[in-house]
Design goal:
By secondary structure, the chain is an alpha/beta fold. It is about 35% helix and about 15% strand. It folds into two domains: about 210 residues, Type I PLP-dependent aspartate aminotransferase-like (Major domain) (Aspartate Aminotransferase, domain 2), CATH 3.40.640; about 120 residues, Aspartate Aminotransferase, domain 1 (Alpha-Beta Complex). It has ten helices and ten strands.
């Protein structure tokens, strides 16, 4: 590992208010390594939300574990803590909690439950690096391990993709280091576990280190775009936005019963939108060949045909923002 990688890991840990950071090739790999560090074995159960990107759950399958899906909250679209408790069994080994779309979603009670029941909690913080809640608690600090993404689409992105796992536990830190570096023990130089080749280059680390210094600027601009959208949507009755405040707005997600018509209208006006997400995780064809549990999922199915992501990125100028808001008003009025 080069000096730039070590320096970036230290900078990232400080920024995220954690003691240790381990860079790896992607956030997906960070989640997989976290499950291995948690001691997840084939047949164990790992609780995950039903509404997220597919990479939240594929590491569970890679570890040979059984994903158990929870319903989601109506306000944040994140994991429903009450449903989570109902899904815990003696086989539950870990929980993966996702901070969605740039917000710091409510995880404190889930972390408390996990600690009380000796369950390993992993935060999937791919969307919300730099986000804090109303109490000033940062996303990614209420867990045994948290994972972040440096995909080019994220708040800060590398050349290609990269990720990191963060923890306050030195033994977990050393194990994560081994897993990403061919199982090599840093103290003895021996390879004492089966590991993987999952490292980033000094060049990548230097670029990410520079991007980290610009985080405040990137987030400020995203918030400005979101505030303009909020002001417009507050005047409309057929549309609502998810993140209210304390978000870094990786995505700007709205809910509307007119989703498909609105998307077509905006596309005709040259405005690109995306859908995050129109398929619940367990509904993907992938799961036809795997064992999983998904019972009593009541709210999540109600939103997959309503969610729509409006364009948001730091380079958006006032003219572009106004063009989007004007067309929202024209469509709904």
């Amino acid at each position: 590992m080069g000096s730039k990688v070590q320096a970036f890991e230290q900078e990232l840990a400080r920024f995220c208010s954690r003691k240790y950071a381990v860079t790896v090739s992607s956030c997906t790999e960070a989640l997989y390594f976290s499950l291995l560090a948690a001691g997840v074995k084939p047949g164990d159960e790992v609780i995950v939300p039903s509404f997220s990107f597919i990479a939240t759950v594929t590491p569970v399958l890679q570890a040979g574990a059984v994903p158990v899906f929870t319903d989601i909250r109506s306000d944040t679209l994140s994991m429903d803590a009450d449903d989570l408790i109902k899904k815990i069994t003696p086989k539950t080994k870990a929980i993966i909690f996702v901070h969605l779309f740039g917000a710091t979603c409510p995880v404190q009670d889930i972390f408390k439950t996990a600690c009380e029941r000796n369950i390993f909690l992993i935060e999937d913080n791919a969307h919300s690096l730099g986000s804090t809640n109303d109490a000033g608690i940062k996303a990614g600090t209420q867990s045994h391990i948290s994972c972040v993404s440096f995909d080019p689409t994220k708040i800060i992105g590398g050349f290609g993709t990269a990720g990191a796992a963060l923890t306050d536990d030195e033994s977990l830190f050393e194990l994560l280091k081994k897993l990403g570096n061919q199982g090599k023990n840093r103290k003895t130089g021996q390879h004492d576990i089966l590991g993987f080749n999952s490292r980033i280059s000094d060049f990548q680390a230097a670029f990410l280190s520079y991007q980290l210094t610009l985080m405040g600027t990137f987030i400020k601009k995203r918030i400005q775009v979101a505030e303009a959208y909020n002001a417009t949507i507050d005047t409309l009755s057929d549309i609502q936005y998810i993140q209210k405040e304390r978000s870094v707005f990786h995505k700007y997600v709205i809910l509307t019963n007119k989703r498909d018509d609105l998307r077509t209208y905006l596309s005709d006006k040259g405005i690109q939108t995306l859908i995050h997400y129109n398929t619940l995780l367990y509904e993907h064809p992938l799961f036809h060949g795997y064992k999983y549990r998904a019972s009593h999922i009541n709210f999540a199915p109600q939103i997959t045909d309503k969610v729509l992501s409006l364009p948001i990125y730091p380079e958006m100028n006032d003219t572009e923002i106004r063009y989007v808001t004007e067309n929202l008003l024209k469509f709904f009025n």
